[in-house]
Design brief:
71 residues; alpha+beta; 4 strands
Length: 71
């Protein structure tokens, strides 16, 4: 599963490693999600995550591109 690959990259390279792989489209979020980042797993799934100190908090949500943009 792509999520397993995402976790492996974070474990080895840290979240900044995600930004080097274009397919994940890792980006900072705005609005209600300001302070969080998003990585694309596929058409419907994104990993929404936030880095706090040395801890990485991950929230996986099922979102459509339309719902994603409204948040």
């Amino acid at each position: 599963m792509r999520y397993e690959k995402w976790k492996d990259i974070v474990a080895v390279s840290g979240p900044q490693g995600l930004r080097l792989i274009r397919g994940f489209r890792d980006e900072a979020l705005r609005g209600a999600w300001k302070g969080h980042r998003s990585s694309r797993l596929n058409q419907l799934y994104r990993v929404i995550y936030k880095i706090e100190s040395d801890n990485l908090h991950v929230l996986v949500m099922e979102l459509t591109p339309h719902d994603y943009r409204r948040k």
